[in-house]
């Protein structure tokens, strides 16, 4: 496997760990949010990852929301299934 394919494969493996992380923190009633579309190069630069031969693959903040968060008790707004899912 080429270095490029190996790196891509390794990055994809991170999503398995990310899925487990999201499930486990949810069971512990800890908030989390997987973030896509981030600038990995900026994370690599700021965290000094290149010097360690590493690169950012996933981003997921984890923590407890503030008791002062006025939105935490509001009902979730969801699209109706018929407007969001098309069976083909």
UniProtKB/TrEMBL annotation:
Signal peptide boundaries: none
Domain annotation Nitroreductase: ranges: 2-64
SUPFAM superfamilies assigned: FMN-dependent nitroreductase-like
Superkingdom of the organism of origin: Bacteria
GO molecular function annotation: oxidoreductase activity
Protein name, as recorded: Nitroreductase
